[in-house]
Each structure stands twice: as C-alpha cells, then as structure tokens.
Amino acid sequence: MGYYVRKILGFIVTLFLVSVITFLVFQILPGDPALVILGVDADPVQIEALQRTMHVDEPVVERYVSWVGSALHGNLGISFRYQKPVSGIIADCFSVTALLALFTLVLTILIGLPIGIWLAKHDKAKYIVPFSLVSQLGVSIPSFCMGILLISIFTVKLRWFPSLGFTPWSQNPLACIKGLFLPSFSLSLGTSAVLIRYLRVSIISEQKLDYVRTARSKGLDENTVLQRHVLRNSLIPVITIFGMLVADVLGGSIIIENVFSLPGIGKLIATSIATRDLPLIQGLVMYLACIVVVCNASVDLLYSLIDPRIRLL
Amino acid sequence: MKKLSIVVCLFALAISSITATGVKEVKPNEAMVPSVVRTNIGSEPDSLDPWKSAATDTEAIFHNVFEGLMLYDTNGKMIPGLAESVVIAPDGLTYTFKLRKNVLFHNGKPFDSADVVYTYNNLTGMSGEKAVSSKFSLIKNINAPDAYTFVITLVEPSAGFLSLTSIPIVPEGYTNQAEHPVGTGPYRFVEYTPGQRIVLERNEAYYDANRMPKIKRAEIYIMTDEAAIVSGLQSGQLDFASITAEDAKQLSSDYTIYNAPQNMVQIFALNNEDPIFSDVRVRQAVNYALNKQDVIDGVFGGYATKLDSNFSPVMGMYYNDTLSGYYEQNLAKAKQLLLEAGYPNGFKMTITVPSNYQAHIDTAQIFAQQLAAIGIKATIQPIEWATWLDQVYTKAQYQSTIIGLTGKLDPDSVLGRYTTTYPMNFFKFSNARYDALITKAKVETNDAARISMYKECQKILTENAAAVYVCDPNLTVAARKDLKGYVFYPVGFMDLSTLYFEE
Amino acid sequence: MRQHDILVECSQLVKEYKGTRNKPVRAVHDLSFSIRQGETFGLVGESGCGKSTLGQLMVRLLEPTSGTVRYTNFQDGRGNRKQEKAMRKENQIIFQDPYSSINPRKRIGWLVEEPLIIHGIGKDAQERKAMVCSILKEVGLDDSYLDRWPRELSGGQRQRVAIAIALILNPSFVVCDEVVSALDVSVQAQVLNLLQELQEKFGLTYLFISHNLQVVSYLSDRIGVMYLGGLVEMGDTEQIYHHCLHPYTKALFSASVDAFDSVKEDLLLSGDIPSPSRSPSGCPFHTRCISCMKRCIEENPSMVEVSPGHFCACHLIQGMNT
Ligand SMILES: Nc1ncnc2c1ncn2[C@@H]1O[C@H](COP(=O)(O)OP(=O)(O)O)[C@@H](O)[C@H]1O
Ligand SMILES: [Mg+2]
User: Fold this and answer.
1) pTM (2 decimals)?
2) Which residues form the ABC transporter domain (chain C) (predicted)?
C-alpha cells in the first residue's frame, strides 16, 4: 500500500519538476518558434499572426499555469509546428517508436539469448576471444553507421528492404515488419552484444552453484539442466539491464529514425527542439517520463514472472 | 533449448518470406511505366495553408496545388493563370482581370470572381479581419463587376505588383486549408503525414490540357538526411531528388543530373554597425581578401555562379552585369585598405554560422583561411538555426555570418532587405540614397527606368561593400534516367506537371 | 549387514583443475581406495584438501583427469545415455550448503518429484506424488511442504529436502559432502541420526565427507584421512580412533578434541597448507610435520598396510616396520 502511494507521489513530483524545468529552459533558449517555422522569407504579418496563436507574448507564469490546467484535463495543447493537438501527434509517432523498440528487443533476444547461452556452454578462449572482438565492434559501431551500412547492402544493392517511409501495422503487417527490420536490426546489434555479455557471465556464475550439481545428479543432461534450472535464475540479473537496454533503444532510435526516415518519437524530439515547439516538447517530456515509469514497472513485473518468489506488493 | 531453436527457425523463415515477397514487389514496377513519381522535400512544410506558409520548400511543392490570377514561366515572366488576361490602365492604377470559365476547385466548387474577391479581401484585410499579408497594402479597392471579371485599384502605380498576383486563389469560405488544402492547380492534395510524406494526385478536371500532368500521383517524402536521400535514389525508392554537388558526382553515371542556378545569393554578411565593420574600407578589404572561386570549387564542386551583386544572373533583366568582377582577390589592396582604416596588423573577428547548413560552415572555413593572409583572425562559431534566427537575423547581435537568401520574382522583396526601415535588415546597412531609390522604383511604371534604378541599387550595395556576395549555388537534381521533363524556375518551384516517364 | 563386497572402487584417480596462469591445481592426486557394500566410509581432511572433488568424482559429477571409478553393482558404460542415467539413479550426492544446493525458484514438491520424471518412474502424476509424499515422510517432512518454496524452510529442513531428493531414486551409493557442517549444532545430530536410520532402512552405502574427525568417527565404519589430494591413512574407525599412526591424523584428533579447551596447542598443525598447485616434493605433509626427517623432504612415502586393513603413508611407520 504505502509502497504504491510513495511510487505515485514520486512520479507526480517528477512530472511537475520536469515540466517546470522544460518551461524555464525554453524561456532562456533563444529562438522564436514562429520565425523558425516560417523562415527568412516570412512576411512580418504572417509571423505576427502565428505568434498570436502561440500566446508567446503572455507572462510565463500565466502560460505555465494554463498549461498545467489543461494538461490536468488531458489536453496537452496545440503544437506550434504542426498546428495539431500534441497528444495526437505524439500518439502517432509513439506507435512507430514503440514498434521499433519492440522489434529491437525481440531481435535482441533472438540474437542475444542463443549466442549468450552457447558461449556460456562453450566457455573456451577460442570462442570467447573472437566473440569479444565482434561484440566490441557491435557496441562501439554507432547504430547509425550500421544503419547506413545495412542500407547500402540490403536496400541499395539487394533491394530487399525499403529505407524510407513507414507502413502502419494495421495497414499491412508484412510491409510494416519489412520497413522496421533494418532499423531495429542495426539497433539490436549493440544491445545484443550487451545482453550476450551479461547473460554469459550470469549463466557461468549460476552454473557454479551446487543446485546445478544436484540437478545433474538427478540425471538431467546438460541442456536440460541449463534450460530448466540455470536459465531462469540467470535471467534475473539480466533483467536489470533490460531497463537499460530499453533506454538504449529509445536513445538510439532518435538517430536511427533519421537515417531510415521513420516518423517516430526520436525524429519528433529533434524537430520539436529545433523549432522551439514548447507544447510539443512538454508533451514529449511528460510522455517519456511516463515511459520510464512503465519500463520500471515492467521490469518489476518481469522479475516476478521469472522469479515466483518475488511478489509485487 | 529446443523451443528456442524453433523460434529462431521460424524467425529466419519469416525474414526469408518477407524478403522473397519484397523481390516480387519490385519487379512489375520496373517493367511498366510508373504512374507514381517519388521525390523528397528537405523540411517539413511550415503550413499547408498558403496564407500561413512562407517557406520556399513548401511553396515549391504547393505551387502545384494552388494557382494565382497570374502564373510565371520558366523565365520568371508573368503569364495568365486563373485570369485569361489582364488589362492595366494607362495610369497604372487599375488592373482588370478576365477570369477563366469552367475552372473547378479540387473540392468540386466552380471558380468565379467571388473566390477572388474573398481571397483578396483577406490578403488586404478588407474583410475586417487582420490582413493576411503586408504586401498588398498598395491595394486601394477591389471589385467584381461580374462573375468572371475582377478589378483591382492601387493607391499608386507599382511595376512590381503584377508579380504579386501569383498568390494562390482559394475557394470562398473554405477554412480548412491547413488540414486539407484546396486549390485549382494541376495536382490536388491527397494526404500529409507529418514527418513522412505529402501525397498529391493529378487533378483530372484541370482546365489546361497543355499543363495536364502526365504522371498520376506524386509522393513527396520528408527527408533531411543527405545519405538517406542518396540511398533512397539508389534503391529506387525515389525517382528524383535534389542533392549536393558532391553526391551528384557519385551518381552522375546512373542518373540524369540537372543542374542550374537557383536564384539564391550566398552572402557573407558583415554587420555594418559593428565597430570594426562600420568602416567601409574594412568591408572592402574583406571583399578584396577573398577568393570566391575557392568556395565554388571547394564547397559546391564547381556548380555555382560567382557573384559580385546581391542578385543572381537568374534575375534576368534586373541583374547588374557590370558589377561582375568588381572585387577580384587583391591582397595588396586589401592590406592597404586595412592600413588606411587603422588596422595594419588586422584584427580578430567571429563568423557565426547556422550549424544546419554544412555548405555555409565549409565556406566559413575557407574564408577564415583567406582572411588570415591579411592578418584577420576569424573564429567560426556554429549555432543552431533557431538561435541564428533570433540572435543574428532578428536582433543583429553578431559580427559576421554566412547565409543563403533566395531570390524572388519581384526585385523589391530582395533589395528591400537593405533599407534602413526594414525590420529584419540584419546587415544594418543604411544609405539614404539607396532608401530613396527603392521607394522610387516601387512606384515607377516605366520598366526601363525601374530596371536601371534596381541596377543602381545593386551598385550601391557592391560599392559600399554592404556584404560579401559569394555565389549562387546551383540546384542539383538527380533523376532516374527514364524520368524526363524536369524544368527550373527562377524561384523555388518544383513543377511536377512537366515530368514524364519515357516508355 | 556388514559385507565385504566392494561397491565402488577407484584407482589412481587424478583430478586437475585449470588454475590461474596455466598452473594446474591438483585437487586429487593418485588416489586409490574402495568402498564396501553397505558401509559408511568416512573421509576427513582439512578444507581444500580435495574431499569434495573426490566425492564428485565418485558419483561422476566430475570427470577424472586420469584413473577410474568403477561400480560393481551395475553395467557401466561411458557415453551411453541410457547407462549413464542408470548410473545416476544408483549414485547420489548431498551437498554441504542446503541454501545453494536446491534451486531456490522451484517448489519443494517439484524438486523432489523431478528425478522421478527424469527416470520415468511412476505411471502418473498421482503415483509420483504418493512417492514424493512418502519420501518426505521418511525424512521427517509432511505433505504441507509440497507447495512450499525453499526460502520458507530452515537449513535443517532444506537439508532434509536434499536428502529426500537424493533418496527418492532409491540409490545404492550416496555421497554426503559435509552435510551437517552448515547446520546449527542442535540440528546436526538430528540429521546425522536421520542419515543413519535411512541407511539401515534402505541398505545404503555412504561416503561420508567431513572436516570434523569427531563427526566422522561417530558415523563411519572405516575412515580415510586425506591430505593435499591424497590419502595418508586409512583403516577401521577403531584403528584410526585408537591407534592412529600418521602425524597428520594425530594432529587432526588433537585439534578436534582440544576444540573445547582451546588454550592447549595448535602446535601440531602450524604453518600454512601448501597450495595444491605447488605440491612440495617428498612427503606432502613434511612442511608442517613435527617429526619431519631428511627422508621426508626427499621421498614421498607410499601407503603401507600396517596391520590388516590399516594403511598409512609415513616414513616413520615404515622405518618402524622395516
Ligand atoms: N572448479 C574448480 N576450479 C579450480 N579449482 C578448484 C575447483 N574446485 C575446487 N578447486 C580447488 O581444488 C582444491 C580442492 O577443493 P575441494 O575439493 O573443494 O576441497 P575440500 O572439499 O576438501 O574443501 C582446492 O584448492 C580448490 O581451490
Ligand atoms: Mg568441500
């Protein structure tokens, strides 16, 4: 009980502080959104008209209070840049980024899990050393370089995948997967490398425990011991890094979305900052804060799924 | 373990099936003549509503959707658009437009003088609302004697006025332009997905058979990343796109490269109110110290036109060609001028550059090196575009900067930037004779006299070294080999109606 | 009950672990002995001398570097999955730490039932459950434990679960590796008694490993004393308890007897145990032996039968005999 109340209170305080800080930063940051949107060819009358719709001339405190007021009613305001409700824009972009992140995590698991397990089973220098080299590359090559490389091979040369545009899942799931495969693959290489390292170490240290010997002594073969006893237990420390991986993926998506021209949150963040689109930024910040909370909650949930001893209070 | 390997197999299967279908999809496209043309736009449209939009990029696309009373041809000459003809009274004050019949807006509404009246009422503020534009303050009066005649009366004669009438005519009472633009152009608006693309489709009811588009559909992808644009072309996902000169070299064997001046002036602006640059001799010294050809070769791969005027030669009759070669690099002269101005050992200066324009940053680097030869130590300070607009463009809090300004059909809207009273005169240039000339040229109806006034204005700017006029970088477009008909305009307009695929 | 048929026999057993910097760790060094059907063979030695390694070698949880472990009660085939499984069924091991030796993320019932499933014993879940309940009852736990998690159990209860897991397959040979040393003293006796009861009931053969000579003497029929990977003395409990010959065994006795009036002396066992990766030349114990001779430094004594069934590896004794 108290645990939940504390969590929620902390969350509200975070949201409040974050929104105040964003608001203040935008007061200090030079740049007039109307001018950024219309550019150097704008007619002063147009700039004025746009400025009127933005209420930038009103006092800061007043604007903040009215923003909070409508935000409490679920209305995050109208984007300066797009002249559309912020919540709708974010929802559209979020569906892209969420799918991208989901695909990336699925790929990370599909790549990382088998390799991590295999390397733990074959704990020999002749396997580990080449892997360390490759994984060092995987971690250190920025995902956008990887993305460009993949585009030049799979899109330009082989023409297997598209490199631009996004098809919503609801419209054509196959095309959607196709469009997201390369970007999520380029993101997943780094995260898989991290997953593999953690998983390998975790499995190896778990395998040293006596219960593994007990399980062998029961007559299980190595693979079953691993699958039935070791794997679940060694996933627990790995889950901790999953939160980190999600953060990685969301961070990486900012760049990768530009490389693959995907209309996701990452691209939206970049545009909204560049255009000083305060309502949109505020909305995004709120959204991201919520995502962080959701991610933490999911990690807790995953813990309790994998380790039945942990109960969510 | 078994389960895991099954999952992996399924996944591999899924991928291979996806790629397999991908190959199938591409083939028919390549075999037949495409009915879709796909290209890119470098930035998000600022607004779909023509009254709220000012960005050149947006106009370049939406000029396919909207039309004015008059249109312009590839030379920038005004030609009839929604008006079949225009008669200008001898006093230069009354413009009588005969409107086209049988024109339909994209929403099916027939076009007539009521729409024109509605449009101009809003532009001028005669509707009682605030004026949508400041450019139409010259209009004293409008009226529509009948459904296909429209008359404008001006306060005073204006030679540049006709070029303003290319402004879009919108259907009377339609207020949803920002969501779903409705015009009369050869293409109609279909959809806009922010961050993704704009889709246009041929206006099957278009009135002019000559301008009837040959390609049914146009998809314009919003793409900012240069590498993504090139790979979009290479992978066949874009049919044509504007690219950098550098990429053009790489693509030239497999693509048709179109290359033409784009009526932009790349300017190395020196703040005329800066303590150092307020001395005309210092500004001239900077002009003499620089070698623009190095920029043209080094930054634009040779694809640019060297300038000594605030106009590009694309401006045609307005361009003052006598200024060409006014400032050839001459270090001795530059040093002499610096000496006279009291800077025998040069000085330190800052070049503020918007960081989103790589070409300007590269230019700044070349200039900084060249300035070092006469003892000027230039530091390059890249700043964010929004900050540039605020600090440099609006507040003129800078020492020097590099920027490209696009030309307009009406010379006044380019040269007017240097008048003392212009709010965004970030050059801080101020010259009484210049101001007077600009005011006079505006109302001069005699074309020859007006042209010579604008030429004189350019001369004043150059002689006073208001800024360093560097070059007009070409617009470089790469198109797949079977795509033909790309044409250039002296203003940013990507005419989709002339494009066709060769069979 | 006492029989003299050999159940498990190992000869010239060597186990080397990969150590740091490519120096192998010799945990078990050229060790031969056998365990008789139905007896409890006690194995003592200080921590780190290789007892656990030997225990695991005896049930084939570890592969020896060289040497063999042979069972007499069933056909033994390497690499044959079926026979390997049969071997597992016959040989079980119970570990020292009941907190790490059972999977903390499985319920007790599941853990005890798993061996039955693996070996296809019991025709359905119901029958298996009955078997689980009965073995739990044998170790003194009732049905309510079926659905409990290991964390809900005390150390003693867990060790009972570990015993249940080991015994549910009805093995003939069980290695008990320090099974009580992690438990409270009060619980130790209970568990030891339980082990003894179960041995009677199921006719088990034990290899009982401990570092505590007192505990080993209490339970075992025969005792082997281990030092640095090898046996230094072996004999009936009687022989070892009353007539031990090897200085190391003597030292062990004095250490455990004097545990209560600790003032007396650690004299007998001073100095550090040499590292198993750098075995000293000569007698492995010479570095700490109070009666070390020149010969001890140069020559490693071999096991000699001092009296029937009583073996000892020490130059002192050999000197006496020859
Ligand atoms: N897995 C292993 N890898 C390397 N060395 C080990 C390993 N297990 C045990 N050893 C070493 O082998 C020696 C004997 O260990 P062990 O058999 O556990 O002794 P005991 O059970 O008598 O305490 C010790 O020196 C120990 O450090
Ligand atoms: Mg041990």
Assistant:
1) 0.74
2) 8-253
